[in-house]
Amino acid sequence: MTPAASQFKKNATALTADLRHRALIRTALKKYEVVRDDKVSRFQNWQSARQSAAEIKWDAVNHLDTHLVEFARNLEARGTQVHWASNAAQAREIIIGIIQERKAHSIIKSKVMTGEEIHLNDALEKAGFEVVESDLGEYIVQLRHEAPYHFVFPAMHLTRGEISDLFSKELGTAPTDSPEELTMIARRVLRDKYITADIGISGANFGIAETGMISITENEGNARLTCALPKVHIALMGIEKILPKLEDLALFLPMLATAGAGQVMTGYNTMYGGPRQPGEADGPEAFHVVLLDNNRTQLLADAEQRDALHCIRCGGCLNVCPIYKNIGGHAYGATYQGPIGAVITPHLRGLQQWKHLSFASSLCGACTQTCPVKIDLHHHLLQSRRNAIAQKPVWWEKPLFQALAFLFNHAGLFSLGMKLGRIGQVFHPLIKNTGIDPVRAWTRSRELPKVAPQTFREWWQTRK
Amino acid sequence: MVANPKMNERENILGRIREALSLPAPIPGAHHGEPSHPVSECDAAAHIPEWLPRVGVTFEEQIALFRTNATELKADFLLLDSQEELVAKLREIAAAEGWKKVATHSHELTDDACAALGLPMVRTDNGYEARDMESCDVGISACDALIAQTGSVLVTSQSAGGRALSVLPPHHVVLARREQLIADLPSAFALLKTKYASGYPSLISFITGPSRTGDIERILVLGAHGPKKLTILCV
């Protein structure tokens, strides 16, 4: 087993037994389902909206080269610098280069999942910069030196008590059990950071090819402030985030809000098309967009699973996934959790190291059904299982099936086997789930199917 | 290693994309045998208004929908009959909240109304100090449109006094005219395309309710980083 797989197994085993943890996730996600269903019902036709969204993203991803060229050209025409990074190291180098050139020190960040993917905070801190996350959930997990628990709700696993203790310890504030007071503590601390930060780093939910803009979806206004006050704005964006036309947002903004958080629209949906333009009151002097590949082109090359690049990172599939609901976000050990993470992580970080995620699924299809851009998620998990085994077969499978074929081809042996099985199952309870149980891997958490008291052939013979 | 890898990354990435796309992908939404209509050269966009939440056609229906949405979002919406009434309402709010300093920008709607408050003002038109604006009690701005479908206010860095005015002060007051009420999101993008045909502002933002977060136990708290209050005054 690879280190990632054994870590996953260890985490999942411990967490499924943690009832308090499971109750916490369920409460949080139950509320989500209620509000999401309410907002879905406001659409005149949610299913057709999904189909349109899937078609628009299909066009974007299947003509990605032309859209990206157009996107970069339009951005550059209005004074934005566009950078291209093939991998994480290049992206970090580009970003650190921009900051060093500015002789800057302090950085304010709004939520950037691609930043988590390339471990940007670590790299920035090692380079000697001060980095502060401004999204409330991200700020909380940053203070805890933790990875986000969910890529939309980063601090979903914490209670207000735990957050209050954290703030008392790290910020020296008085304990409180009011979420509002806790939010106001973070507001006060972070306000000053926006004003004093030299650099603002953001992500991008969409990149509009037609007009050369990035679009950021948020609720708190932290990204608005991050992109308004510092002198330099750097946006890190995966190459697959492209949408062809500006008006495509009329569909994607409400769908992302509905599927992601059960809102018709989130608080702020903002398009940035450049640095401060002549005649404008404020805004950064420089705007940099860093386009990140980091193995996305490998996923693109898999035509069968290419639609996984349609993902708009709403997190809807996590919220309905029975596995996520039981093991939570940290167990995965990956930047992107849940079904979408299980599909894309093997492509981004290696199939053999991450194939275990495709096996950690009941294949119920709730993810596929909920996905606003109709990614065929649970079939992709099956395909990854197939691909992983084809690439590296399990040595004992072939001889096992050969032996079974031999057994099934010899009637006498087969009926002897059935008889032995019937006798064996009488005594099996004596050794069940002990060290000498030959089928312990199965019986540890399941019942062995019973051998029928009479086989079909035996019955057929008595009938005559 | 290539001589100058940075210069070549663009071509490397585009090259990998083109190579990957030489294999065609299955049509979207086709879940293994489940019938699906073919990709219609992406006229998908043409039907967007038919899928989104329904909006009435008359002004009364649309204003009622905007009001319902704004109320649900915990924004204050007031439809007023005249500029005088607007000025009076603004003074009333100023007195009730004890405003001491106001941030605003030059616009036919904001100029008279803000002058009537008789308070110290930070105007963003010719630049401003961030700390100065942060100490204001309110940001008063104009907008591009009010969107009935979602209860959103559409602002840009040109129409609403820059990027920070609508998010930095703790209370954002939007002044709008009845003619600025539009039906839905597709009409908002159509409006942007016509209005800014000669060049888009560097920021376009749909503001939907005051700043909010649910990051602590999924409990709604207003005023996470941006304004705690959003007031929309429409004449």
Explain what the structure shows.
- The complex is a heterodimer of chains A (464) and B (235).
- With 464 residues, chain A is an alpha/beta fold.
- Chain A is built from 24 helices and ten strands.
- The model of chain A has no long low-confidence stretch (mean pLDDT 95).
- Chain B has 235 residues and is of the alpha/beta class.
- Chain B is built from seven helices and twelve strands.
- Chain B has a six-stranded parallel β-sheet. A four-stranded mixed β-sheet of chain B has the order 8-5-6-9.
- The longest helix of chain B is centred in the N-terminal third of the chain and has 16 residues, at 5-20.
- Chain B is globular.
- Chain B starts with a helix and ends with a strand.
Domains counted in the coordinates of chain A: how many?
3
Tell how many strands the DSSP assignment of chain B holds: 12
Rg of chain B, please? 23 Å
Q: Uncertain regions of chain A: pLDDT < 50 for 5+ in a row?
A: none
Provide mean pLDDT of chain B, rounded: 92
CATH architecture name of chain B: 3-Layer(aba) Sandwich
Shape of chain A: elongated
Low-confidence segments of chain B: none
- CA(first)-CA(last) distance of chain A: 53 Å
Strand content of chain A: 5-15%
Report strand % of chain B: 15-25%
Strand order of the largest sheet of chain A: 1-10-7-4-2-3
Number of helices of chain B: 7
Give the overall form of chain B: globular
Give the full name of the CATH homologous superfamily of chain B.
Answer: NagB/RpiA/CoA transferase-like
The CATH class of chain B, by name, is: Alpha Beta
Q: How many DSSP-defined strands of chain A?
A: 10
CATH topology of chain B: Rossmann fold
Give the quaternary arrangement of the chains.
heterodimer
By CATH, the superfamily of the largest domain in chain A comes out as NagB/RpiA/CoA transferase-like
Q: Estimate the mean pLDDT confidence of chain A.
A: 95
